[in-house]
Amino acid sequence: MVTPILPLEVSQALVKRRGKTLLGPVDLTVSQTGFTIVMGPNGAGKTTFLRTLHGLERLSKGEVIWQVPLTEARLRQAFVFQTPIMLRRSVRDNLTYPLTLRGTKKAKARQLAEDWARRVGLGGALDQQAPQLSGGEKQKLALARALILDPDIIFLDEPCANLDGRAMREIETILLDACDAGTRIIMATHDIGQAKRLATDVVFLMHGHIIENSHAKDFFAGPKTPQAAALLQGDIVE
Ligand SMILES: Nc1ncnc2c1ncn2[C@@H]1O[C@H](COP(=O)(O)OP(=O)(O)OP(=O)(O)O)[C@@H](O)[C@H]1O
């Protein structure tokens, strides 16, 4: 049996750059299942927080501990950036590339690429050059490219920023399906409606600190902090 990589234990994690604290110290346990939405105003540290969990940020102090060795944990997680970077190749090649890098046979990789392209609505675009796709299509390709590796956990940094309602809904459906299939999801968003539609729990950040970490139902029914209450009311939170 494969050892689960979760729960993830974040202990006193601190990220400082040039004397400025960007994040922390933060403590958090990421459970094995669920859809965590990370909220907070601009500059609160959401991106830094996601990057820290994923292992992209050098910690000034503290630890991020997976249940498996780090080299293995790295291979079993994925990150989707707000502005995805596409290979200057076809949609098909963008999808097969991460697989062949990991040793998947060419025919199998092509098969999976075709399956995933279809699942995200890009079945008709397999031979199109990826950089020529629309913003929403690029985001769907970025998602497929992450999910094709069947990660245990996926981090997403505002994947729907600048997308219209239809593209957003399509991406949300893909994410909810992945979550139902057992992929742990942690996603930053500014969109309160989206947070309500997707979250099982919410991490609310202010000035690099987690000031709330609650079940989504509790958070949206009655946030514990005035900052979160203000944000949910549509007030400006700084
Ligand atoms: N490499 C860096 N060096 C110095 N400061 C940084 C660095 N990266 C981020 N910051 C600062 O850290 C703070 C947190 O940034 P971060 O991008 O994590 O916030 P955010 O909540 O994701 O913001 P937004 O909602 O605007 O995307 C900001 O004040 C930012 O300017």
TrEMBL record:
<dbReference type="Pfam" id="PF00005">
    <property type="entry name" value="ABC_tran"/>
</dbReference>
<keyword id="KW-0547">Nucleotide-binding</keyword>
<dbReference type="InterPro" id="IPR003593">
    <property type="entry name" value="AAA+_ATPase"/>
</dbReference>
<dbReference type="InterPro" id="IPR015854">
    <property type="entry name" value="ABC_transpr_LolD-like"/>
</dbReference>
<protein>
    <submittedName>
        <fullName>Tungstate transport system ATP-binding protein</fullName>
    </submittedName>
</protein>
<dbReference type="GO" id="GO:0022857">
    <property type="term" value="F:transmembrane transporter activity"/>
</dbReference>
<dbReference type="InterPro" id="IPR003439">
    <property type="entry name" value="ABC_transporter-like_ATP-bd"/>
</dbReference>
<dbReference type="GO" id="GO:0016887">
    <property type="term" value="F:ATP hydrolysis activity"/>
</dbReference>
<feature type="domain" description="ABC transporter">
    <location>
        <begin position="8"/>
        <end position="232"/>
    </location>
</feature>
<dbReference type="GO" id="GO:0005886">
    <property type="term" value="C:plasma membrane"/>
</dbReference>
<dbReference type="InterPro" id="IPR027417">
    <property type="entry name" value="P-loop_NTPase"/>
</dbReference>
<keyword id="KW-0067">ATP-binding</keyword>
<dbReference type="GO" id="GO:0005524">
    <property type="term" value="F:ATP binding"/>
</dbReference>
<dbReference type="InterPro" id="IPR017871">
    <property type="entry name" value="ABC_transporter-like_CS"/>
</dbReference>
